[in-house]
């Protein structure tokens, strides 16, 4: 009996010591706040902090304004600002301390690929407003090059016909197709119709087409579930109403 008693005491002591070593990590999202306990011998605080940073939606998005809504906006395009942002964010992402497991290493690799593609697409599009042949530098969307980049480079009737076709397609998806048609007819008769064609085909044709082909990471809850697996326990003391 004494040996059994000593064994129980030893087990309880080990359990208590293990529990005493655990640390607490708190975080929140748009729905809930979380309190996780983790074993610092298995995962460090910097790893938890950096992994959470990596899975935050939008945390490593390109935020430099690359949108052109009018011809005067072309003069405000700042490719150097885009270059600086990409260099900063890609360097930060590559240096994050994350778990050395296949899931997390692949997640970062996919995020780096996504960031690089978005950057290169935005960059050639920005350059394309001044030199349309720059669009050919983006080689990851050949169908979009054929359908939109080539007419943009050719100009003239090729561009105007592509603009018309694109506008007709956009009307089918719009809740007010008559308004789009009236606007198109007015712009097509304008002396600035080539500029209008450039703006619409570049943004709603070329860019949207190529952007849809980028393999964006799906934020379907999987990264968050994998993150919770880094903890011994996770509690949700507060969640908003659904």
Short description:
The protein is mainly alpha-helical and 242 residues long. The chain has helices at residues 2-21, 45-55, 79-95, 102-128, 142-154, 156-173, 177-188, 193-212, 222-228; strands spanning 23-28, 32-38, 233-239.
Mean pLDDT: 91
Looking at the structure, what is the overall shape? Answer: elongated
Order of helices and strands: HEEHHHHHHHHE
Task: Find the count of extended strands (DSSP E, 2+ residues).
Answer: 3
- Structural class category: mainly alpha
Low-confidence runs (pLDDT<50, min 5 residues)?
4-18
The termini sit apart by 54 Å
Descriptive report:
The protein is mainly alpha-helical and 242 residues long. The chain folds into 2 domains: 38-138 and 221-229, no CATH class; 141-213, no CATH class. It contains 9 helices and 3 strands. The chain has helices at residues 2-21, 45-55, 79-95, 102-128, 142-154, 156-173, 177-188, 193-212, 222-228; strands at 23-28, 32-38, 233-239. Helix 6 runs antiparallel to helix 7.
Give me some keywords for this one:
242 residues; elongated; 9 helices; 3-stranded antiparallel sheet; 2 domains; mainly alpha; 60% helix
């Amino acid at each position: 009996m004494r040996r059994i008693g000593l064994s129980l005491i030893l087990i309880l002591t080990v359990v208590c010591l293990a529990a005493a070593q655990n640390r607490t990590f708190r975080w929140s999202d748009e729905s809930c706040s979380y309190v996780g306990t983790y074993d610092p011998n298995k995962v460090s605080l910097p790893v938890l902090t950096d992994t959470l940073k990596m899975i935050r939606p939008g945390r490593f998005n390109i935020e430099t304004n690359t949108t052109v809504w009018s011809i005067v906006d072309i003069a405000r395009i700042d490719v150097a600002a885009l270059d600086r942002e990409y260099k900063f964010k890609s360097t930060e992402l590559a240096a994050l301390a994350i778990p050395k497991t296949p899931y997390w290493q692949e997640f970062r690799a996919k995020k780096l690929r996504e960031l690089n593609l978005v950057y290169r697409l935005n960059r050639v599009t920005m350059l394309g407003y001044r030199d349309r042949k720059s669009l050919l530098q983006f080689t990851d969307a050949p169908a979009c090059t054929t359908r939109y980049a080539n007419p943009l480079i050719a100009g003239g009737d090729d561009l105007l016909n592509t603009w018309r076709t694109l506008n007709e397609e956009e009307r089918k998806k719009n809740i007010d197709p008559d308004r789009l048609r009236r606007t198109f007819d007015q712009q097509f008769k304008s002396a600035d119709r080539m500029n209008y064609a450039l703006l619409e085909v570049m943004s709603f044709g070329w860019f949207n087409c190529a952007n849809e082909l980028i393999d964006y990471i799906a934020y379907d809850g999987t990264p968050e579930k994998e993150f919770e697996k880094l903890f011994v326990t996770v509690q949700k003391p507060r969640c908003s109403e659904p």
